[in-house]
Amino acid sequence: MKRYYFDHSATTRVDAAVTEAMMKAMRENYGNPSSIHGFGREARVALEDARERIARILNCDPAELFFTSGGTEADNLALMGVMEANRDKGDHLIVSKIEHHAVLETARFLEQHGFRVSYVSPDSYGIIQPDEVMRAIIPGTVLISIMHANNEVGTINPIGKIGQIAREQGILFHTDAVQSFGKLPTDVKDLNVDMLSLSGHKIYGPKGVGAIYIRKGVKLSRRTQGGHQEREMRTGTENLPGAIGLSVAAQICQSKMAAESEHLTRLRDRFWEGLKSRLPDIHLNGHPTERLPGLVNISFEGLEGEALMLTLDMKGLAVSTGSACSSGQTSASHVLLAMGIPPQIAQGSIRFSLGRENDDESVDYALEVVPQVVENFRAMAF
Ligand code: PLP
Questions:
Q1: 264, 211, 173: which is closest to 69 by C-alpha?
Q2: Ligand 1 centroid, distance to 230 Cα (angstroms)
Q3: Where are the domain boundaries for CATH 3.40.640.10 in the chain?
Q4: pLDDT tens, 134-189?
Q5: CATH class (in words) of the domain with range 16-252
Q6: Contacting residues for 128 by C-beta, under 8 A, at least 6 apart
Q7: Best substitution site from 152, 199, 333 to test ligand 1's pocket, by max atoms within 8 Å of Cβ?
Q8: Burial class, 102, CB count within 10 angstroms (exposed 0-12 / middle 13-18 / buried 19+)
Q9: What is the CATH number of domain 4-12+257-379?
Q10: Residue 90 and residue 92: Cα distance in Å, rounded?
């Protein structure tokens, strides 16, 4: 049976050029970047080249970029590092209710350790309005963390405007750009951010590697003790093949961004329009246009997302219910609930995330199979 991948927001296939660059690094560039002999120096040069490539895309100084084990670690470092290092300035953190668990659970952890946290609600499209963030600011607010694009519904937040508010109020601002990096422009100056998290495996790069931009001058305490790597911000021998893979993947995404965005937006809209014309009682979640190219989150009234996802999998269609990281839980997605979608409708939601594995033929197949499966379920229910 042919299988079709519609889950690019969960992870992506590593690009062939990325694999090649990583293999070369593993075969030839095996020195430790901390060693001062020739092997080490060559590895150091390769690591700094990778850093520079990503810094150019973010429009930051390479010294402001730190490699991590992924988006989760970058988010943890931003939130815990800033709150801990700035206790003298305050104890209050603002996050949104639609953040990824990497941010939400870190915020909860901080709450358990005596910090105060405000959770800002999105509007019904899943967008965090700057006014809402403004209202959450109190004396003692140290940090605001609002994601660039949401991983479940794909809506894009007005990060530049929120960043401007933060700057005017003298508050630090972090954005989780794990879903947007490589798909949308992520110039840290345009976005007015002090910190930005990104990850390799969402952009056709390797898993287990990511990075964080930390603006020069931001006071932040590190999470690990050890050697002097990453200017002591992230100790431990660097994942050189991972960093190289991430940088090559980012470069490819950057060079293809306009064309991929246009192609995926067309496929995404064709899929939704096609489905809408074939099925009643379905709803598009998220903003109709201010959305990541390729992402379509749909509620199918009267259905259970988990059952639908498993049946589609048996038909060769890989999708996810809500976020891949939260599948396995039967509760409705916290993102959809925060948007005000009733729980019984939120529970019947599926995320289709299109990417390089998709073309018109895969959309045709999905347009054939999804209505069949949904109609079968609905017929059984009556
Ligand atoms: N933030 C967002 C918005 C994500 O979608 C994800 C992954 O699903 C993460 C953070 C975590 O990134 P990583 O898998 O690299 O730890």
A1: 211
A2: 21
A3: 16-252
A4: 999 999 999 999 999 999 999 999 999 999 999 999 999 999 999 999 999 999 99
A5: alpha beta
A6: 96, 98, 120, 122, 146, 157, 158, 162
A7: 199
A8: buried
A9: 3.90.1150.10
A10: 6
